[in-house]
Design goal:
three-stranded antiparallel sheet; mainly alpha; about 10% strand
Length: about 100
């Protein structure tokens, strides 16, 4: 089982992807089945404003996309798990461009 692949198996808007990644890192509480995305809705500003936590989560997702773990759609501003991720190919990359500071 791969929790990140499960949570991001479909194209997911960047703000929701940041939340899901934060849950996996233990930063945010997981969903309450009776009130899905309650925490996300209450703290949406973390993902929609310029702040250290939101920026770190977004940059981390972009790095995972550069490594081939995720796919990134800049037009839709969304992520999904890469269906054909190759650990050896990702580990062999030496030229990874820096992540830009903004969307």
């Amino acid at each position: 089982m791969n929790p990140l692949r499960e949570r991001l198996k479909e194209w997911t808007d960047a703000d929701i992807a940041q939340y899901e990644y934060g849950v996996l890192l233990g930063i945010f509480p997981d969903d309450d089945p009776e009130c899905p995305y309650h925490f996300f809705r209450e703290y949406k500003w973390v993902f929609w404003t310029d702040n250290p936590l939101g920026n770190m989560l977004f940059k981390s997702l972009k790095r995972l996309a550069q490594a081939g773990v995720l796919e990134w759609d800049p037009e839709e501003i969304s992520f999904r798990a890469a269906p054909m991720f190759d650990v050896e190919a990702a580990a062999a990359q030496v030229d990874v461009e820096p992540v830009k500071e903004t969307l």
